Amino acid sequence: MAGGHSKYAFTAAAETHTFAGILLDMDGTIVDSTNAITKHWHKIGMELGIDPLVILETSHGRRSIETLALYDQSKANWDYVSHIEGLIPKEFGADAVEIPGARSLLESLDQNHAPWAIVTSGTRPLVTGWLNLMALPPAMTRNLVVAEDVSVGKPAPDCYRLGIDRLHLTDENARAHVLVIEDSPAGILAGKAAGCQVIGLATTHSIESLRDSGADWIVQDLRSVSLVSRGVRVQGQIQIEIRDALQSP
Known about the structure:
Elements: E1 15-19, E2 21-24, E3 31-32, H1 34-48, H2 52-59, H3 64-69, H4 78-92, E4 97-98, H5 102-111, E5 116-118, H6 124-134, H7 158-166, H8 172-175, E6 178-182, H9 185-193, E7 197-201, H10 207-212, E8 217-219, E9 225-227, E10 233-234, E11 237-242
Parallel strand pairs: 2-5, 2-6, 6-7, 7-8
Antiparallel strand pairs: 1-11, 3-4, 9-11, 10-11
């Protein structure tokens, strides 16, 4: 997880907001896979003869197919990408942990039949690998948007627009009131470009980068995000409490 946040005050008073649906990123938002992904790119970098540190400078929050295209076009295809990403939980799963509060939030959303979906730059084999390894809620695959589903990845808004479509929100007002939860600047930019409000998690990137990307709230992890109470709805929408967010300067 990202460090160096001690100079910031995560003490904002609790706020309750109403949304029509919630879209969550995966790596860095539900699973802290930083160490696993780092080892993965070190392995791939050595195979390609590329300095892994160079790859890691731009890989987080982006689709692997776009990262690989920068170094070896022959590897930038879905068969290869799905294969190598499917190996990550198997080879480096011991280096990944749940983001605090993630399981509780997902289970609460599912139990209350809230409109929600995972929108990730990872492939389906990577998502199902984490799901199986960590015994995460099977509902994660419902309405799932993965890297293969869009022609352009984050920071383009395509993935989040598709996520909104998969929530079956046909009313324009509802589509304009969707919450995105992200950890990367690219993901935050994508969510904002899709017309969503965004919670930035300070799990993998600096506070400054989350703020500069336009996050509406910044919290340390998902322990600061919850349904207000079971079954609470307002005109078919859901109420989310955000607490201990970063204090505005």
